[in-house]
Protein: Manganese-dependent ADP-ribose/CDP-alcohol diphosphatase
Amino acid sequence: MFSIHNAQQIQRHLSRLNILAQISATKSKLVRSDFCMALANGLANGQGRQPIFSFGVIADVQYADIPDGHSFLGVPRYYRHSILVLQRAVKSWNGHRNLNFVINFGDIVDGNCPKDQSLNAVKEVVSEFEKFHGPVYHMIGNHCLYNLPRDKLLPLLKIPNYGGGHAHAYYDFSPVPGYRFVVLDGYDISAIGWPHDHPNTLEALKILSEKNPNSDKNSPEGLTGVDRRFVMFNGAVGNEQMEWLDTVLQDATNMKQKVIVCCHLPLDPGATSKTTLLWNYDQVMDVIHRYDCVKVCLAGHNHEGGYSIDSHGVHHRVLDAALECPPGTDASGYIDVYDNMLTLVGTDRLKSADFIFDS
Structure:
C-alpha cells in the first residue's frame, strides 16, 4: 500500500537528485569558465599560437682549462664545466628545430685562462657555437678582451661589418620585417682591448681617473650608488656609436619595427648590481627613450642575472652566467618572439619569463 511515508521518501530522493544535478551543472560551468579563462590567458601570453620567430640565448660561458675557482665575492666558478653547459645548450637548440639564430652575450673565455692558451680557448668555444645549425651572433665582453685584443678577437667571432680599417663591434640585423636587433659594443670606450695609446683607451683612463680614486681601478671601494660602475671591467658607448644608435632607432621607427637591444653590459640600475652597469648607460637610455620602438634590452655580465621595467616601460633582462652553474646544471634557453611579447624559456638557473608590451 502506498503511504505518506513512502511519498516523503520519494520526495527526499527527488530533492537529493535535484541537488546533485545542480552541483553537477555548477561544476560544469566552473570547468567551462576555467577553461575559457585559461584559453584567454594562454592566448594573451602567446600560448596556443606560433611565435613569429625564436632564438637561443646564453651569457658568460667564460671557459678556461683550469681548476674551479671563485669570484672576488667568493662565488664558485666552474671553468671546465662551463663548456659542457654550452654543449648541452647547442644540443638543445638544435633539438628545438625552430630556432632561427643564437645570440651569445659575451665573455666566452675567462680572464684567468693562461694567455698562451687564449687563442686556442677562444677557437674551441667558437667551434662549439658553430655546431648550432644556424647563425650565431656574438658580442664582446671584458673577459674576451683580457684574452685577445680586438683586432684578433673580432674576426674569430665573425662580428658583422667588421673591417674596413675599424674595429667596431656594434651592428644591427633584422630577422623578420617587423623586428630589428641592435647589438651594442659596451667596450667601445675601454681601458682594455685597444692599443695602449689608442684614443679610446686614453679616454677611458681619463674617465677612470676622474671617477675612481682607487689605485686599483677594478675596485669600487668608496664609491656609492650608481657611481660604483666606474671600474675598469666596465666601459662606455662612444660618440660615433651613439650617433649610429640614434640613426638606427630612427630608421626602425620609420619602418614600424620593434627593437631588441643587446649589450654585454646592463643598461638599467634596477636590473643589475651597480658595479656592472655601462659607464654611460644613462646617455644610451636617453637615446633609446626618444623612440617608442625599443621594447626589451637584454644583457649579461652580472652573473646572478636580474630584471626591471624602466620608467618608459622598457623591459631589462640580465641573463644568468653559464660559468657559475654547478656540475650537471645549466643556464641557457631560447626566446619566442610574438607581436606583443617575448617569452624566455630558460633552464635551471636561467628562469623563464614573459615580457609583455604594446604591439
